[in-house]
Structures are given as structure tokens and as C-alpha cells.
Give the backbone structure.
Amino acid sequence: AFSPDGRYLYWSRDATPGPTFAYNKDSNEQIYVIERLDMETGETERVTGGPGGACRPTPSPDGESLAFIRRVRGQSVLYVRDLESGRERPVYDAMDRDNQEAWALHGVYPVIDWTPDSKSIVFWAKGKIRRVDVETGEAQVIPFEASATHTIHETVRFDVDVAPDTNRTKMVRWATVSPRGDRVVFQALGKLYVRSFPEGEPRRLTSESDAFEFYPAWSPDGTKIVYTSWDDEELGRVMIADARTGNVSALVDTPGHYVEPAFSPDGKTVVYRKTSGGYLRDGAWSDDTGLYTIPVDGGEPSELTDSGSLPQFTPDGQRVAYLAVEPDGVGQKRMLRSVDLSGNDERTHLTSGLATEYRIAPSGDWVAWRE
């Protein structure tokens, strides 16, 4: 708002500490403040702020006062500031709560205004338009009526079967074609399904009913599918299923948080990532995260690295490649990195600031990635 003589332009702004906001050194609080621009000199100065903030600056017509809203504890209050002395006093304390915590594109309180004699302020509060005498604090409601025409449409309603016997899924995850190209495995509604190409009906891979199934990957000969499971009580496992019969066994039977398993080219080893829980999942069994390998015929897992994601064997089976992410100034380096089967001889092959997944071609001649 401009002052009546047009010399000053007043505004309120968020003075929250942070990289994109000014820091209110006077109050050390996250609040709104009122500033003004001198239209003659171009200088900007802070008019008021402090605890409770200050918003909706409105100069009086005589140029002597500034009305604004301030939070007093939990209550928004109408204040008036004498621009010569700087004294501030509350005028009316039954305002609706202002939106100083919000991202308010149209201001953090509805517009207020002075009467032409600079003796009263007109404002909105509690669903009414009100007028308050600045000297006495006496307030009254300004009655009004408004004629309006509304078109009321009949509500559109659909019958919804909340527990149908069958359901047509509209999204599949981890659709992965078998090495021979004759089948595809995918996840839908938390379970894994297999379908033959070019024609065929999807069928459940397993008959497991309790755990959810994630991250399927084919063995090189197409006879097995490795995946990870999850149960809110039992947590996760790394599982192997016969691709034809659906018979299941646990490859890693220790409870944990497992993702992204993959077979070695000879089908004798599986690599997987162990991650941590917490937030939405149980926080137990969250230590020793990283990439691990384990023999398909049984044995103990071996740790390769304590970081990385999306592991895959190189085509010769001698190394494990993975996505590595490291800070790089204000951004990140997202690298295709690999180690040998002992977790040593670390090498970085490609670097991108935006890559989210790397995949090595079966021939070993190409790398594809997604940004």
C-alpha cells in the first residue's frame, strides 16, 4: 500500500531464516515483517516486526498512522502504529487467525481500510464486516445484504463395490522378460504373476498368501525367479521360486529389509541390497546395510560394499556393478561403479549428475542409463 502522499510503498514479507529469506536479527523468530520503500531515495527500511510478526500494512489517510495485524500468543490482533513516535498499541483483539505460517499469495489477512477521517478502521473478522474506533476501541458490525444467484447441480454418484471377487489392475511393476523371451514376470497388487508370450493368461507365481512380493529377476536359464518378500510382522526375506511350479524356498532367511536381487550369469550366485527400516517400516534388522552376494545352493551372505544400489553382475560374472551416489558441491555424482567378487578393486566407469539407473548390455559392449 502507498502512503497518502505517495512517498512510501509499504509491504509485508516472510522473514523466515533460510537461504532464500532475510534473517530477522531483531527478534530471531520466523515471522512476517513490514518494510517500506522510499520512492524518492530508493532506500528500503524495516518499519515493524518482532515477536508475533506484522502483516497487512495499511497507512491512514492523514499519513500519521499505520494499521497492521500482529499475533499475540495464539490470537491475531489489530494494531496501530504512530509513524512519528513509533509507538504501537492494540486496537481490536477478536480477529480471525492470520496465515503467517502459510504460503499466502494474496496476503496473510483480508484487506483492511481506514475511514476517510482516519478515525476508524473497517475490517473483516468472524464472518462479519466490522468497524472499530481507533481511539476508544469500540467496534460495531456493519450490516449488509448481498443478492446472489447459485446453480445447484445434482451430485454425481457411482456405485462402488468395495470388495469385488475380481479386480482389473491398472498398473504393473517390474515387468521382466525371461532370457528366452517366452514369458514375462511382473508384480501387481503386491503379488508376482507370470504370463507366456505371445498369448497367455497371467497366473500367480507362488501360492504364498501372507507376504508381499517385490523385485523379481530371472535366472539365466529361465527356470528360477529370485525376488524379495515383505511382511509387517516377519519383515523381509530373499526368496527363490521355481518359474514353472511356483515352489518357493528362502535364499536369505534372516529377517531384514531386502531389495533388488539379481542372478550371476552362471546362475550360481545372487546379489542383493540390504537396506534399513524405520519411518513406514519396522526399524529392526537395519544394521550392516549394503550389497551382498550369496550362493544359490546355500551358504552365508558375503558383503561387497556398505553402500550402492541396483546391483548387477558384469557379463563375465567376475564383478558386480552398481549405482553409487556421492555429493558433488551443490549436486550429486551418480556413478556406475563396480567391485570384484571380494568387494575390492573399486572402479568408476561412468558419471552423471542425473542418472537414476544404469544397465549393462548382456554383450558387455554398451551401457544404458536413465536420467
Q: What stands out?
A: The first strand starts at residue 8 and ends at 14. Confidence is low (pLDDT under 50) at residues 18-30. DSSP finds no helices and 28 strands in the chain.
